[in-house]
Design brief:
With 382 residues, the chain is of the alpha/beta class. It folds into two domains: 192 residues, Glycogen Phosphorylase B (Rossmann fold); 172 residues, Rossmann fold (3-Layer(aba) Sandwich), CATH 3.40.50. It contains 17 helices and ten strands. The chain has a six-stranded parallel β-sheet, sandwiched between helices. The protein has a four-stranded parallel β-sheet with strand order 1-2-3-4, with helices on both faces. Helix 9 links the parallel strand 5 and strand 6. Helix 1 crosses helix 17 and helix 13 crosses helix 16. The protein is globular. The two termini are 29 Å apart.
Length: 382
């Protein structure tokens, strides 16, 4: 169950969608409930998560359990804690697995220093107070899912460490299973790195604070002053293009090609036309786009956190820099631009690394974790 539309082109939704498809390919039966199958009367997102979604997950689970004998109930988001607790009380052999796309408590912790630097909250006191109270209330969902789920699947080791160290989840209850690129991205060879590709810098992401758009803009601003031949492309929803322009210097605005969000096939063409990919996020549950870029042979310059921290071998198939460091990201780009041999080597290695992260692998590791948790529950019930 996932409170999002079944969209393979989306981030978290795409991961759930493609995992389900890969599980089916392996011969497993998966019944999916998406957002259109969950009641939504409360429009406010966080209030919906707090007051409505936990009950919706629980009710839908109980409906399905009356009609079928499932091995696994797999729920996206910590708001399934009521379902997890109820399933435990039913004393069935069915296990409850929670998959996190970035544990909210860790998001809040990791973003705090960056919000203090870049995002001054100028809202009225009462609005800030209400927001703080809502955030504190939602933390109950996170702590409850940690306590009641039989297992947790996360994409990055840092999320696994947070569950273990901060929320007391046992190590054997945690599986770190990285995401993968779309099959179309790895079915054809990545294009060769050329001097023309290397002169084109790409950024693909939703426009959100945790994605660090101000860092992207600062890097582009610096690079434009250093090399007048560089070209820049920024892909995000068209509704945020004005926000992007506001971050860019006057000199760069005319050199940045702003593109609306694209389907996977169109996005692959954009990757293939560029040589350097910026990935400076302050936080990610995984951050699938950097792996997509690697699969098409781009030289990824990424903040050293989340999925990039686990996947990239620094200097071999990508470059890792300290999170939030504009200078390090700029210098890494200049290093690539000044060393075509290094760029070509990283490009080839990136494409090879990305091809080892497949949806078949995701499905097989997911099934192995399910089986381990089923066996553990059976042992406990004896």
């Amino acid at each position: 169950m996932a409170d999002m539309p079944a969209d393979p082109n989306s981030g978290a939704a795409g991961t759930e969608y493609l995992t389900i498809k890969a599980l089916g390919t392996l011969g497993h039966e998966v019944d999916a409930i998406w957002s259109d199958g969950l009641p939504r009367r409360i429009r406010h997102g966080n209030i919906h998560y707090l007051l409505e979604l936990p009950f919706a997950y629980e009710h839908r689970m109980l409906e399905r359990l009356r009609s079928a004998d499932y091995d696994v109930v797999h729920v996206n988001q910590p708001h399934g804690y009521r379902a997890a607790r109820t399933l435990a009380r039913l004393n069935r052999r069915t296990i409850f697995i929670h998959r996190s796309h970035g544990f909210e408590l860790r998001v809040e912790r990791d973003l705090k220093p960056w919000k203090e630097r870049y995002d001054k909250d100028n809202r009225l006191f009462l609005k800030r107070l209400a927001s703080r109270a809502l955030t504190d209330a939602l933390s109950y969902n996170c702590r409850s899912i940690a306590r009641h789920a039989d297992g947790h699947i996360v994409y990055a080791s840092q999320c696994g460490q947070f569950l273990e160290e901060e929320l007391g989840v046992r190590k054997e209850q945690i599986a770190v299973i990285p995401a993968a690129s779309p099959n179309a991205f790895v079915e054809s060879p990545a294009p060769t790195m050329t001097s023309e590709r290397l002169k084109r810098v790409l950024y693909v992401s939703q426009f959100a604070f945790f994605k660090a758009p101000m860092i992207v803009a600062a890097v582009m601003n610096h690079l434009s002053e250093t090399d007048s031949d560089l070209e820049f492309t920024w892909v995000c929803s068209k509704q945020h293009h004005a926000d992007v322009r506001a971050l860019l210097s006057e000199n760069v605005r005319t050199r940045v090609n702003l593109l609306d969000w694209k389907c996977q096939e169109e996005l692959m063409h954009a990757y293939d036309a560029h040589g350097i990919f910026l990935f400076p996020s302050f936080f990610e549950g995984f951050g699938k786009v950097f792996l997509e870029a690697m699969s098409r042979g781009l030289c990824v310059v990424a903040a050293d956190n989340s999925g990039a921290h686990d996947v990239i071998s620094n200097g071999e198939d990508g470059i890792l820099v300290p999170t939030g460091s504009v200078d390090s990201m700029v210098n890494s780009c200049l290093r690539l631009l000044g060393d075509a041999e290094l760029a070509s080597s990283i490009s080839r290695a990136a494409a090879k690394t990305a091809r080892s992260y497949t949806w078949d692998r995701v499905a097989r590791e997911t099934v192995a974790f399910y089986e381990d948790r089923i066996a553990a529950k059976a042992t406990r019930s004896k």
